[in-house]
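pipeline stage [seq->struct] | target=dGTPase | organism=Streptomyces toyocaensis | residues=126
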Amino acid sequence: MSVPPNALKKWEKVRDYALRLPGAVEEHPWGETVAKVGGKVFVFLGADDGSYPMGVTVKLKDETAHAHALACPGAEPAGYGLGKAGWVRVPLEPAGAPTADLLCDWVEESYRTIAPKRLAAELDAP
């Protein structure tokens, strides 16, 4: 299974953005790429080897953003009970999938929800 180039570009942009956030680190539990802050995952980036359709999973507390994410083609509440806590899996490959910029906005919201307050505050510093 090959990864469509546009999905891979989006994935790379989102991953790079996530890892530039204060205190963010990349880890690879379960053979999946995740970005963590303070030891907690704030975005699941999945695998980029084509073994599974590309997507990102973010925690969206803002009701409008959450509803928008779920309205994307193929989006669904995250598995393993995470959907009940506001986590949404958004595929990158279908026609009409969100832009990389919108995905980065959602990654930032997820980060602000998970990150320690002092790190999240760095995003608003001049």
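stage status: PASS
auto-comment: The chain has a mean pLDDT of 93. DSSP finds four helices and six strands in the chain.
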